[in-house]
Write a structure and sequence with these properties.
This protein starts with a strand and ends with a strand. The chain has helices at about 80-90, 90-95, 160-165, 185-195, 250-260, 305, and strands at about 5-10, 60-65, 70-75, 100, 110-115, 120-125, 130, 135, 145-150, 180-185, 200-205, 235, 245, 265-270, 275, 280, 285, 290-295, 310, 315-325, 345. Among the domains are: about 1-120 and about 290-345, Umud Fragment, subunit A (Ribbon); about 245-285, no CATH class. It is an alpha+beta fold and about 350 residues long. The strands form 6 sheets. Strands 1, 2, 5, 18, 19, 20 and 21 form a 7-stranded antiparallel β-sheet that branches. The longest helix is centred in the C-terminal third of the chain and has 11 residues, at about 250-260. It has 6 helices and 21 strands.
């Protein structure tokens, strides 16, 4: 949940040797409350991982470095630089939100999501239902989808919403409906909302083409027109180490960033032909595994649907314990979620 503080096991998938070893201890990338970096790139090493207890498994919660975090906007550090460029152009983005900060892989911001597909899998979302290799995903209790809730003309008591566990920052009542256009609910929350006396109907929100604002092909990976939405997405194959693909106009947009950035090649495209380090190629063999991450709050999550694959060298570890949790929408001491403190994940 938003407001959780996590202990992360870096040995679960194997600890990484430091790539940027000259840094201030216990501070990840910037000094608290500033944008001043807490490390130096004077010394850099290649990625190397020591053997862990196991590999990343499908449906694991995983902590990883944000793939698009190599370039950061000084005036909007939590926003995606590449999304801004696609939507507004580079000059406007840099002039408005710059200057830019460049970060090495191990100093990118940390994210935590569910790994819904591993290397070699084929993923597809149909009307909001996730399928991997043709099999529906297990219905985990924490997964939320967005629902339209129509009432008899009165708003639901905020106390009821709070007791159900709905985040007040995601609640907006529209008297013209009357009701709530987008209420994020788990299956347990759904049954409780349906049982409320002033609720008339509850209908799932499913994003069909063309996608709902602000989504567009410029927002959804691979950022070309494919007729996809966040609820109707794919099929998409997750690259795996050692696999070779034929490169063509239909798939190059899926792999361009992998070849050029994640696997450190000088990639160029000229008149429908592809070149690596000046040499023309027609196939490519992947050097590492990749993963597809999605948030459990499916309609309010910036995840692999919006920035693509997560490389193996970006994997940090597995969340193990929630050591503290607070609700940012409440004041002290009611903001402390006592039941979540020292909760094992």
């Amino acid at each position: 949940m938003t407001g959780d503080y996590l202990f992360v096991s870096k040995v679960a998938y194997g600890p990484k040797m430091p790539q940027t070893p000259v840094s201030v201890p216990f501070i990840h990338n910037v000094f608290p409350g500033t944008i001043k970096k807490s490390y130096s790139t004077i010394l850099q090493f290649d990625h190397k991982r020591i053997a862990g207890f196991r590999n990343v498994r499908r449906d694991d919660y995983v902590v990883f470095c944000f793939p698009h975090g190599d370039t950061v906007l000084t005036k909007a550090p939590v926003e995606d630089y590449y999304t801004h460029v696609r939507m507004n152009g580079r000059d406007y983005t840099v002039n408005t939100f710059g200057p830019l900060i460049s970060r090495p892989t191990d100093k990118k911001d940390h994210y935590v999501k569910r790994c819904v597909a591993i290397a070699g899998d084929t993923l597809e979302i149909r009307d909001g239902q996730l399928f991997v290799n043709g099999t529906p995903q297990t219905k985990y209790p924490g997964i939320q989808n967005s629902w339209e809730v129509v009432t008899n003309g009165s708003a639901i008591n905020p106390v009821h919403l709070r007791d159900i566990g709905i985040n007040s920052s995601e609640v907006w009542y529209d008297p013209t409906l009357p009701g709530y256009h987008q209420l994020p609910l788990t299956s347990e929350m759904l049954s409780k909302v349906e049982a409320l006396g002033n609720v008339v109907s509850v209908t799932p929100n499913v994003d069909v083409y063309p996608p709902d604002y602000p989504d567009s092909y410029k927002m959804l990976f691979p950022f070309v027109e494919k007729g996809w939405t966040k609820d109707n997405y794919g099929p998409i194959w997750i690259p795996c180490k050692g696999a070779t693909v034929e490169l063509d106009a239909d798939n190059i947009d899926f792999y361009r960033r992998i070849i050029d950035v994640y696997e450190d090649n000088d990639f160029e495209e000229q008149e429908g032909k592809y070149f690596i380090n000046g040499e023309e190629i027609t196939t490519y063999t992947f050097k590492q595994d990749y993963y597809f991450m999605m948030g459990d709050n499916r309609h309010n999550s910036l995840d692999s649907r919006y920035w693509g694959f997560v490389p193996e060298d970006h994997i940090v570890g597995r969340p193990a314990v929630i050591w503290f949790s607070k609700d940012i929408n409440k004041s002290f001491p009611k903001n402390i979620r006592w039941k979540r403190i020292f909760k094992f994940i």
